[in-house]
Write a structure and sequence with these properties.
The protein is of the alpha/beta class and 343 residues long. It contains 10 helices and 14 strands. The protein is 30% helix and 16% strand. Helix 2 packs across helix 9. It binds threonylcarbamoyladenylate and magnesium ion.
């Protein structure tokens, strides 16, 4: 693994479509599930688009999803589960959320609900939010894969950041060959646009992203209108004001620190020890080996840890900006941004 997060992998394409021999398709899904459980990256078909799957509870695997896509920021990801029973173990469903889930799952609908503290969807997968986006896909191969995986699976679209979403295994291969472990090939995805995302974390459901299920169909089930979510919620879900309080550390954060001031804790990378480190209250290294993928995986945990230990101030060394370094800088920038006054 290089610091930039580009990972040299051998990508295997495993046929799993309806046209395959049933036993071969079954074996392909079982192998893909094993790879995912071991922390690997598996592109899988859903009825909307191909998703780039990883174990939602494994921060290192989730970090590798961001790295493989070349995502500049840690957007919160959708977690895929096999059924509503699995979903209600991960999030708190309001009456409206339950009604929508029963009407449209399995299918191209994603519901954002308050997250339960199970650890099955890690902080990085939620970009530190206290909500979780859940979806039960309808595609038979996706359902078999999720059942075999036995855990929630993050699945952003399986394309490089800035490219269009893949509706064929060949699209996935063109974008991600050498960056992921397995592509489950089941032919073209039928819906071709991403799922509709409805925010059910507040008092009234709101539309975060239009998609595979029409607004009018959702309104019919709700019995009332479905307004658009406030633009900040849709476009900047990780704005500091919306972060769970324990992810904006209580201590002030000082970036690009060339020294450690008396009383500061040091958040460092690749073993760097700037002047003053010996007197630092606490030193946490995001990746002693200098891997930005590992640093991304450790970032939220490190911020949580610094808070738990009650450090008065945090100095952060400069980190490389390539690969996941851009997303880490984005997240640290938010952690260091001036906070709205606590009422
Ligand atoms: O059809 C789809 O939904 C595809 C297939 C593969 O399932 N997946 C997909 O995932 O489009 P993704 O990760 O690219 O979409 C994630 C979007 C984010 O950009 C964000 O807008 C929203 O879902 N999202 C996720 N978690 C959220 C949260 N807790 N609050 C608000 N928005 C959230
Ligand atoms: Mg996408």
């Amino acid at each position: 693994m290089t610091p930039s997060g580009t990972i040299d992998r051998h990508t295997r394409c495993l046929p799993a479509g309806a046209g395959e021999d049933a036993a071969a398709a079954h074996a392909a899904v079982a192998e893909a599930a094993r790879v995912l459980q071991a922390g690997g990256l598996v592109a899988f078909p859903t009825e909307t688009v191909y998703g780039l799957g990883a174990d939602a509870g494994n921060p290192l695997a989730v970090a590798q999803v961001y790295a493989a896509k070349g995502r500049p920021a840690f957007n919160p990801l959708i977690s895929h589960v096999p059924d509503l029973d699995a979903a209600v173990r991960l999030g708190t469903f309001s009456e409206a959320a339950l009604r929508l889930a029963r009407a449209f799952w399995p299918g191209p609908l994603t519901l954002v609900v308050p997250c339960r503290d199970t650890g099955a969807v890690c902080d990085l997968a939620r970009a530190g939010l206290d909500t979780v986006a859940l979806r039960v896909p309808a595609h038979s191969v996706a359902r078999a894969f999720l059942a075999a995986a036995g855990r929630p699976v993050v699945g952003p679209s399986a394309n490089r950041s800035g490219h269009v979403s893949p509706t064929l295994a060949a699209h996935v291969d063109a974008d991600l060959d050498g960056r992921i472990d397995v592509i489950l090939d089941a032919g073209p995805t039928p819906v071709g646009v991403e799922s509709t995302i409805v925010d059910c974390s507040g008092e009234h459901p709101a539309l975060l992203r239009p998609g595979g299920i029409a607004r009018a169909d959702i309104e019919r089930v709700l019995g009332h209108g479905l307004p658009d979510a406030a633009p900040e919620a849709a476009e900047r879900p990780v704005a500091p004001g919306r972060l769970a309080s324990h992810y904006a550390p209580r201590a002030p954060v000082r970036l690009e620190a060339g020294h450690v001031a008396p009383g500061e804790a040091l958040l460092t990378f690749a073993g760097a020890r700037p002047p003053g480190s010996a007197e630092a209250g606490l030193v946490l290294d995001l990746s002693p080996a200098g891997s930005l993928v590992e640093a991304a995986a450790n970032l939220y945990g490190a911020l949580r840890d610094l808070d738990a230990r009650g450090v008065p101030a945090i100095a952060v060394v400069p980190l490389p900006r390539e690969g996941l370094g851009e997303a880490i800088a984005d997240r640290l920038g938010r952690a260091a941004a001036p906070r709205p006054p606590v009422p």
